[in-house]
Backbone:
């Protein structure tokens, strides 16, 4: 599927995968560290680590010859996933932590708590609606182009009442 979200979910959509990546961002690299942190069955951990290596998010490196032992290190693609993890922490704290925040993001030097937001790199402005919207990209299929064109048309067209008039338009005595 050409959708960037669907493609991402193919690689990291299984919840163990995201938790493994979370732990990798915390500095874990070894099988036993992931296993202990997550309480995951070894066979499941092996499958998830292999999938993350195959997807190019982790690199498997040998750190011991006898016995052979491997570590799993974030690749550039894996490190690029960090903003997603940060956003998930912030969203989870905001919407699913009635008892309060259990994990915070802080500035390493000052200890000040961060309030992460998504910003446009070019302008530094927060990416919010309605100022920013999704459109079909240069590699979009014809189906995707039609989908986004249809959404854009619906958003820009005034909402209609059941009588066919645009919502908010006044009916005058001269209207037909």
Residues:
């Amino acid at each position: 599927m050409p959708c960037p979200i669907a493609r991402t979910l193919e690689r990291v959509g299984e919840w163990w995968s995201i938790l493994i990546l979370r732990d990798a961002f915390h500095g874990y690299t070894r099988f036993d560290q992931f296993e202990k942190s997550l309480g995951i069955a070894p066979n499941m951990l092996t499958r998830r680590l292999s999938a993350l290596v195959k997807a190019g998010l982790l690199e498997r490196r040998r750190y011991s010859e006898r016995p052979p032992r491997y570590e799993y290190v974030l690749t550039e693609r894996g490190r690029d996933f960090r903003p997603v993890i940060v956003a998930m922490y912030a969203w989870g704290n905001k919407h699913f932590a009635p008892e309060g925040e259990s994990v915070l993001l802080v500035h390493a030097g000052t200890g000040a708590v961060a309030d992460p937001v998504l910003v446009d790199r070019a302008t530094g402005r927060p990416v919010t609606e309605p100022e920013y919207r999704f459109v079909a990209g240069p590699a979009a299929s014809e189906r995707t182009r039609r989908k986004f064109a249809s959404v854009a048309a619906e958003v820009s067209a005034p909402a209609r009442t059941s009588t066919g008039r645009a919502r908010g338009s006044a009916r005058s005595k001269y209207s037909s």
Observations:
- The chain has a mean pLDDT of 89.
- The first helix runs from residue 4 to 12.
